[in-house]
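for the writeup, i need someone to sanity check this before i put it in the appendix. the sequnce is what the collaborator sent (i think, or maybe the updated version? ugh). structure was predicted straight from it, no edits. if anything looks off just tell me and ill rerun, i have time this weekend
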Amino acid sequence: MFKLLFIKRPKLLVVTLITLIIIPLPSFAKSVSINVFAIPSKSIINLVEQTSDALKKEGIMSFYEKGKPVHATLYLTDFVEGSEEDIKRAVKSIIEQHQEFAITAQGFSVTQSNWAFINLQYSPKLQRLSDEVTLALEPLRDTNAVIPSWVKSYPNKLTAFERYGSPNVFQNFQPHLTLLANEKSPKLGILNKQMQAHPPKAQGKIIGIGIGISDPFGQQKQVIAEYFFNNDKN
């Protein structure tokens, strides 16, 4: 009797293993980084071009020089792949409720990790636009996105990331135009001093909202939609 049981158990084990192999494993949806951004008018783009020319003379290539579109991020996070059409519909709905508005680009900033920006002055209308985009799109985000390690050092940003998937929304929203990321050239420090003496400045407008699949620096690898405000509203 003992011998018979000993023989049957390995067969049961084999059947169990075969069953596990045949049963399909659950598939997990991929995520994609998407940047929903404000589109500036030509005068702001010209300022980025001029500043990029100054960087180029020092052998520093800006994102603009590399062909990346000028933009001010409103909401950047990871979304479940396949959410693109829902994102487009939400943004289009927001666009229909707004008109273009004035914005001022002024000042040049360099971070400790050598990211360089042209700053945008605080605008209640730009803040509101970012807030609305965040609230509309947050339900579509990938809630399993990994928290960037640097965010953990900033309690306010960590709280924002955990709730909205981005550390830079609502009270943490600081609009800017990114020129460089992790720049290695020592000439950036010299150029920064020159820019502080004569800060870049331009008056312009925010004329629409774009949606782009972004790289690790928040730059657009592919712009998948652009919507422009209808200025015929009263």
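The chain is about 35% helix and 25% strand. Helices lie at 2-22, 42-57, 84-95, 124-137, 155-164, 187-197.
thx in advance!!
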